Amino acid sequence: MTGELAAPHPVLGAVVVLGVLLIGAAVVTTADAVVADRVAGRGLGLRTSLVRPWRRIALALVRPQPVTERPDWGLWVLAPATYVGMAALAVSVLPLGTDWAVADVRTGIVVLGSAEVLAMVAVFLHGWAPNSPLALVGAYRFVAAGLSFLLLSMFVLIAAALPAESMSLGRIVASQQEGVWNVLRQPLGMPLFLVVALSVSLHGPLDMADGTELATGTVAESSGPARLAWEFGRRAMLTAYALATAVVFLAGPTGPVLPGWVWLAVKAIAVAVVLVWCGHRLGRIGIERYVRLAWTVLLPLSFLHLAIAGVAALA
Amino acid sequence: MTGLATDLAFWTFAVAAAWFGWRVFRTDSMVRATFCLLASFLNVGAIMVLLLAEYLGVAMFFMMGVEMVVMAIFMVAFMMNPAGLNPMQMVHQPRAAVAVGIGAATGLAVVAAVADLPPAALLDEAGTIRALGNELMGSSMLLMEVVGVTLVATMVGAVVLSSASGRYGRADTGSVPPLLDPDDPDSRPDLASADGQDDAHAGHGGHGGHGGHG
Fold it and tell me: Of A113, A263, A294, B76, which has the maximum CB count within 10 A?
């Protein structure tokens, strides 16, 4: 059932995954504040960049939750939990050190894809549950986006699995240690995967569910701890996809001198900063244009990418 | 996993799969019914992972997830009650369905109890699986490829047909009726005034989105 990498005890593994998501969400929150201040020309201030986000989190905790007409409370509570759970599922199959992963299963990239699909279900239900128009519009929009970027992600991950001759993410890292990193070997892959990362984690220009033009869409009716849980989920998902990008395209924990997990952290933080930066520098794109772009430009590009990877694997 | 943990996991997933399957027909909403069905399938997928059919189980999560989301959207879109969002019955012909269900469950239970099932995986001594693989990837390869290309062409065709560009212009910019006389640009029928006449007859019923009515 497991691949080649060693796995810690399941309980320890669960603690590790939760720790990675919590630390990652904190790093993303800090990076977001720092990048926002840089973009606004305010420079780096300890007070503005490092204290302000935590003040906002503390304030969010004491806000009350509004009540809508006949909401589906069960789904409303379960949706953020499922979304965080799918981020955890994605992290669990990634190699976090040079010789270990929480669960280096043979079907690693399929598990990653499943996490993405079920995250789409969670976002849809989170918008559907409050029984409120703007949240529902956000939910439908995200499904339209999701059906577009899921195929993209599938082809990019299959292309990464070809040179490794395995769907295990441990083997995908090993194949990059033996040869060239995928970011160079498959140059189209990483930009396409970053599109997927922004889309699935509801960030920046590709945040189709929680856009400000929908009065924050699926979270329009959420406040207080429920809102905080959802915002944590978005950052946890960004963490998971920054780690996945580092593993699939930047050889994950590979690197000289320092331990593997340090290299992985450095690469993942670099990817996360790029993603957060995109959120502050790029304009948001309308859903019609996004779907058009995805089906007429990005998807053919991913076909081409897969074809090139296939020919290269045969050669 | 130890035997006890596997047994516990199996029974948890099995009971959850059956319970969610039952909830599909007891809920009053298309969306809830669809996602109860998804939950049932996810539990079946987990059982397949327990049976070491790892790829099939995980692929079940992946494929059923997409499939159920698409199904929910289509059912809500094409239901006769407004957007499928009003409470509704989830069963048709319930008495016949109950009879068929009990019959099928009894049949399967009898098979499971009576059949002489092997206690462990068997070696494929006759080479059936290998022969099947050779058949699919060997002499029938051309046929399989033709089927594959046809399916892709169908998918592309469906996307083209459902895409924003229709014969009345782009869907997201508002549709325009075609010219009655292709050579005369003034022959476009004026739908707004036609609607106005309708309204006069129907007493302004059901044209909520119209400008020009006070």
Answer: A113
The pLDDT assigned to B131 comes to 87
Q: Please tell me if residue A288 touches chain B, with a CB cutoff of 8 Å.
A: yes
DSSP alpha helices (H): ranges in A165-259? 169-178, 182-185, 189-200, 224-249
- DSSP per-residue letters across A144-182: HHHHHHHHHHHHHHHHHHHHHTSS-HHHHHHHHHHS--H
Is the distance from CB of A240 to CB of A21 less than 8 angstroms? Answer: yes
Taking an 8 Å cut-off on Cβ atoms, the answer to whether B62 and A113 are in contact is yes
Q: Would the pLDDT of B78 be above 60?
A: yes
What pLDDT, on the 0 to 100 scale, is given for residue B9?
92
SS3 (DSSP) at A81: helix
Residue A196 half-sphere exposure toward CB, CA atoms < 13 A? 31
**Number of neighbouring beta carbons within 10 Å of residue A129:** 25
| Contact across the interface for A121 and B73, Cβ inside 8 Å | no
Does A114 contact B65 at a Cβ distance shorter than 8 Å?
Answer: yes
Across all residues in chain A, what is the average pLDDT? 87
pLDDT at residue B211, rounded to an integer: 35
pLDDT tens-digit readout, B95-117: 998 899 999 999 999 998 998 88
Confidence class for position B68, pLDDT limits 50, 70, 90: very high
Residue B41, helix vs strand vs coil:
helix
Residues of chain B with C-beta less than 8 angstroms from the C-beta of A289: none
Q: For residue B165, what is the nearest residue in chain A, using CA coordinates?
A: A292
CB < 8 Å to A10, chain B: none
State whether residue A110 sits within 8 Å of chain B by CB: yes
Round to whole Å and give the CA distance between A118 and A233. 13
Contact residues on chain B for A128, CB-CB shorter than 8 A: 31
Give the distance from residue B59's alpha carbon to the nearest chain A alpha carbon, in angstroms.
7
Q: What type of residue is A67?
A: V
pLDDT for A159: 92
Nearest to B59 among A72, A75, A110 (CB): A110
